[in-house]
Specification:
168 residues, alpha+beta, Aminopeptidase, eight-stranded mixed sheet, 8 strands, globular
Length: 168
Amino acid sequence: MVHAFSPSPSGGGSNPPSPSGGGQGGGFRIICVDDEASWSDLEESIRTDTREHGWNTAMTEQYIALSRWRAAKTPHRFCLAYDRERAVAHVGLFQHGPIAYLHGLYTRPDARRRGAGGALTLAMPAEADAIGSARLTLQCIDDGYLPGYYRRLGYRAVGEQHLWNKPV
């Protein structure tokens, strides 16, 4: 089962400044990827993410190329959380009409449970507003942990769906 979430009307948690304006979130520096240095940091974060999930090099490089294409050709952006000078987490934000979609939140294993993912997630409503979105939404699997995580960050479930597949 997949849950869809939107920020609660009352907010919840604290909202760090929008990455568009830079800023700190929970002690982390939050930025949107907008130059070669930040792209290099995002690519390294993606490589760490995909290694952890068993992707091969070709799949990872294809995903990086797709991410660059999305950022250049669609209303898609990526943001990073830095702990000092090291990128420790990333997330994607895609705008479709008045709705922004948060996706692909990832925190490096050695930086987990210290607030980087939360700082990124809490910064995204302001970023969605800055790009003209009226709503921010995300989806997560019902693995027992993620729905509660997003609720603690001030998101509320607005629906659920079942995904079906069939081997071909």
